[in-house]
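Following up on my earlier thread - several people asked me to post the actual chain instead of describing it. Fair enough. Here it is, all 260 residues.
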Amino acid sequence: MGFQIGIKDIIDIILVAILLYETYKLLKSSGAVNVFLGIFTFIIAWFLVSYVFKMELLGAIFDRVVSVGAIALIIIFQDEIRTFFSRIGTRSNWRVFHQLTNKFKSQSAQAEIDQSVVQIVIACKNMAKTKTGALIIIEQDQSLRQYEQSGEALDAIISNRLIENIFFKNTPLHDGALIISKGRLNAAACILPVSKNPNVPKRLGLRHRSALGIAEKTDALAIIVSEETGKISYAVNEKIYVGVKPEELEKVLSEKMTKA
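Reply from S.P.:
Thanks for posting it. Predicted structure:
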């Protein structure tokens, strides 16, 4: 009887490949890719020993390690597992529903969003000219409540003058992130997770790594103004875009804040 592969087997293989690839991407962004490769190598060795070569003694030892290892993996990768499942409902799979919802938004609501975008862009342009460091986070589908609680509550309207004043060097709230949620300046001086991605250029400082860190953990949009160069950058969907023009920033903000 020959070896046969059906359509169900092909679909099974494709789904496993996608799962492994997404897991690899998630752990690569968090700096734990070497652990993933080590676990993957162990699983292959366990499969060969237990099911191909059928070594009973060594296979029994590997079986015990695997049975305990499942619990250990949940403990080790609890942050990554939480991030993985939280992204399932917030990725572009639901983009159609966002577009349908946006069609029913009133003109006054859209005008308010446009005004907020203009205020943020003006603030970033002015801070870029004076080389004032800034880190602004725009909340999307995933709540940023846990990060807001690490800073000072504001609940203020979005104003370029207020944003610039928050990040002025002599103010007590300038060190940290400003979080914008539901069209309001919700909190300032917030502490964010720092990206452990080894591929981030070393010339990028803590603000850029924090922006990338929140973009890896959530679906938020992070805007950075560099204190050293005055360049405007933004991070979203685990990627960072350095040195963008105000026009590009305005376009991205309009898209993201309309969906929020």
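The mean pLDDT is 83. That should answer part of your original question.
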